[in-house]
Amino acid sequence: MLKASVVAVMCCALGSLATAQLASGQDVVLQQQPAQSTPARPSHLTWTTGVGFTQPNGNASTLLDPGWNARAGVGWNFSPHFAVLGEYEFDRFEWESPPLGAGVRADGNVHLWSFNVEPVWRHKFTSHFGGYVEGGGGFYRLTNNYGKTVPGYDCNPLFGCYPISSDPSGRTSSNQGGANFGAGVTYKTARGGGLSYYTEVRFTWLDTHPETAAFFPVSFGVRW
């Protein structure tokens, strides 16, 4: 009888010790498991800004010297690959020397500004490098600012024929639609970061009269 009681007590003690060790082991396992963090959701807001140079093409290259450009845009990321931006761009050119219509306009400059809707498709090559293609269209305004002038008429493929006064502050302008498409490469300094640097080249076409105009803007800037 005594032997049975001793055996029962020993069994209970061993069972309690095993249960305690098991509970302690579970606590250690739970403590060793790292807390799982919820991955951050990418921002839907996107923006871009940049500067560069613009090369006139075709008819425009016979009238204008290469100029410079500046642009800024903001839009919405519909997915990690696709976004749509609203973008403003400004380009400035000097008239070629000697200008068309010699003896009428001795110098001056041309401003081109535009508002465009730009769908963008992106692709990531590595954690740092990526690329994109884009194409869109919108409203373009050309402004011809006179320099030294002699009263008379000037004719050119961008603005047609128009009178020029002796007032050096005079100007002519035209409004038209246009379209563009281009591609660029991007570089992110931090993995998973939203900010990236880009280099981009585009082809821009304007429905000017009496002849159309084309340009190649090249830009460098930052995107988010």
In words, what does this structure look like?
The chain is mainly β and 224 residues long. The protein has a single domain, classed as Beta Barrel (Porin). It has one helix and ten strands, in the order H-E-E-E-E-E-E-E-E-E-E. The protein has an eight-stranded antiparallel barrel with strand order 1-2-3-4-5-8-9-10. A two-stranded antiparallel sheet has the order 6-7. The longest helix has 31 residues.
Reported for the largest beta sheet, the result is: 8 strands, antiparallel, barrel
Q: Uncertain regions: pLDDT < 50 for 5+ in a row?
A: 6-11, 26-32
Total beta-strand segments: 10
Number of domains: 1
Rg measurement, Å: 34 Å
Shape: elongated
Gross CATH architecture: Beta Barrel
SSE order, as H and E?
A: HEEEEEEEEEE
Name of the top-level CATH class: Mainly Beta
> Structural class, from secondary structure content?
mainly beta
CATH fold title:
Porin
Strand order of the largest sheet: 1-2-3-4-5-8-9-10
For the record, give the distance between the C-alpha atoms at the N and C termini, rounded to a whole number. Answer: 83 Å
Number of helices: 1
Task: Report the β-strand fraction as a percent range.
Answer: over 45%
Give the % helix. 10-25%
Mean pLDDT across all amino acids: 80
